[in-house]
Design goal:
The complex is a heterodimer of chains A (235) and B (273). Chain A has 235 residues and is mostly helical. Chain A has one domain: MetI-like (MetI-like fold), CATH 1.10.3720.10. Chain A is 80% helix and 0% strand. Chain A is globular. Chain B is of the alpha/beta class. Chain B has 2 domains: 134 residues, Periplasmic binding protein-like II (D-Maltodextrin-Binding Protein, domain 2), CATH 3.40.190.10; 113 residues, D-Maltodextrin-Binding Protein, domain 2 (3-Layer(aba) Sandwich). Helix content of chain B is 43%, strand content 23%. Chain B has 11 helices and 12 strands. In chain B, helix 10 packs across helix 11. Chain B is globular and about 55 Å long. The termini of chain B are far apart. The chains are: A mainly alpha (235), B alpha/beta (273). At the A-B interface, helix 2, helix 5, helix 6 and helix 9 of A face helix 1, strand 2 and helix 8 of B.
């Protein structure tokens, strides 16, 4: 396969030359997926913590539901979001379809269950350690949630990364709600799909390599942040 | 409590960001388009000229003709540019479109592996060549996605004595995907496939595939352009959308379409009235 060698060369020259279109696409990918991850954590972490510390009827069903929702197919999420944001849909008046905001919403829906399910497991284990202490301090639910999230913050970073990884890699949802519009809603994955459909497999693969390097970079950044923070915290 | 407040915050942020995004797009239109015009680079050639002249930004959503029409029926676009005349006329007859204009044409071709297992090379009758493919047992890849190309292919089969649906999954492979994805699949499994010429010329993964059948009038491929009806869809930017259509069918636009070449070949032939 000569495509591989060609792809490496192309990827390198795209990155080295700082191709303006590529920079724009990469920046949008990061903006959309990082925002979606941030929002998903804002909603998902407290929700995961709440489920972790509460016992209620049907709790098992809720756990199973969130675990199952981790496997939401992106294209189904895209379709649901499309139907809601379409001009013919209930939120059509907002004019959000084919904007980066629509892509953020879709990815947020896609990864919030991941954040809830994974953080719930981590925080429930931690809560088992803290339960007596919480009782003796008579903490409110909200205080418990905050304390758990804060103390587990380093483990929760991995949860965020899992969500980010899913968001930045998916193509089905952003393709439908973003429309892959040049200079407006084109991100790495939709650009890869487009080049594949043009039969330009080498360029598609080159973009894929760039995407993998970016994902690697984000993970490395978070890891180094965590190591620095851990050193400070336990110094 | 905490959960509630953060949700409200998210909603506020979403609305705020959404409002911003909307404001930046006042002089822009969304064109629901077929893929061939986008993948072949035609828009990259035309749109900068139009935008420079008018200041209107054109955002292209390139999907199959079937999906483009469905999206336009949901009011998710200002202009529809596709290639399936009966479906376009139905769109206008239903009141969803204002008026349909002929824009340009090219043709469909049937491509396949160079060794040509069904022996259709050089045939000029599309239906006969399809029949021969079916009889020979060679593979045929179909879009299977209600796109303009798929509709055309289906209508060609209906004039033959063959019902390809009976061979579905065997010799008749429906990919349910766009033209490019279907071409990739066809090349991968050495299957004959019908494609519009523009996509074929610009396609980069041809393998050893060549054009076997061309030149039948039945393979004519007409593109049309329609303004989505602002009376049905209040969000339609009728002024900018009509300006785009007027420009496309004007002398300037038509000349620009005819001037677009790739690898020395003209891809689209203007034929607005």
């Amino acid at each position: 396969m000569q495509d591989f060698g060609e792809a490496f060369g192309l990827a390198l020259s795209l990155v080295v030359s700082g191709d303006a279109d590529l920079v724009e696409i990469v920046a949008l990918s990061l903006r959309v997926s990082l925002t979606a991850t941030g929002l998903a954590c804002l909603i998902g972490l407290p929700l995961g913590a709440l489920v972790a510390i509460t016992r209620f009827r049907g709790r098992n069903a809720v756990l199973i539901l969130f675990n199952a929702l981790m496997g939401l197919p992106p294209v189904v999420v895209g379709l649901l979001v499309y139907l809601h944001l379409s001009r013919a849909g209930p939120f059509g008046f907002l004019g959000l379809l084919y904007t980066p905001m629509a892509m953020i919403i879709a990815q947020m829906i896609l990864i919030t269950p991941i954040v809830v399910a994974l953080s719930r497991q981590i925080l429930e284990d931690l809560h088992a350690e803290y339960a007596d202490q919480f009782r003796s301090l008579v903490l409110s639910r909200r205080q418990q949630v905050m304390a758990l999230i804060w103390d587990a913050r380093f483990s929760l970073m991995t949860v965020g990364l899992a969500g980010f990884g899913r968001a930045v890699a998916e193509v089905g949802a952003v393709m439908i709600v973003g429309g892959n519009i040049d200079h407006l809603t084109r991100v790495m994955t939709t650009a890869i799909a487009l080049e594949t459909s043009k039969g330009d497999l080498a360029l598609a693969l080159a973009l894929g390599l760039v995407l993998m390097v970016i994902a690697l970079g984000v993970n490395a950044l978070v890891q180094s942040l965590r190591m620095t923070a851990v050193r400070h915290a336990y110094a | 409590m905490f959960v509630k407040t953060s949700r409200v915050g998210v909603l506020v942020a979403a609305l705020f960001l959404g409002a911003n995004a909307g404001a930046a797009q006042d002089q822009s239109i969304i064109v629901q388009s077929t893929t061939s015009t986008a993948n072949s680079g035609l828009y990259d050639h035309l749109l900068p000229m139009f935008s420079e002249e008018t200041g209107i930004e054109v955002n292209v959503v390139a999907v199959g003709t079937g999906q483009a029409i469905r999206n336009a029926r949901n009011c998710d676009g200002d202009v529809l540019l596709v290639h399936a005349k009966p479906a376009e006329e139905e769109f206008v007859a239903d009141g969803m479109g204002v008026e349909r204009f002929d824009l340009m044409y090219n043709d469909f071709v049937i491509v396949g592996p160079d060794e040509d297992p069904a022996g259709i090379g050089g045939m000029t009758d599309a239906q006969d060549s399809l029949e021969r493919i079916a009889e020979s047992g060679a593979l045929f890849a179909s879009r299977g996605d209600e796109s303009g190309t798929h509709k055309k292919e289906t209508s060609l089969w209906s004039d033959t004595g063959v019902d390809p649906g009976e061979g579905s999954g065997e010799w008749y492979r429906e990919t349910g995907s766009g033209m490019g994805a279907t071409l990739n699949a066809a090349v991968g499994m050495d299957a004959y496939v019908m494609t519009d010429r523009a996509t074929w010329i610009s396609f980069r993964n041809k393998g050893d595939f060549v054009v076997h059948v061309e030149g039948d009038e039945d393979l004519f491929n007409q593109y049309g352009v329609i303004l989505v009806n602002p009376e049905k869809c209040g969000n339609v930017n009728a002024e900018a959308g009509q300006a785009f259509i007027d420009w496309l069918i004007s002398e300037t636009g038509q000349e620009a379409i005819g001037a677009y070449t790739l690898n020395g070949q003209q891809l689209f032939f203007p034929n607005a009235d």
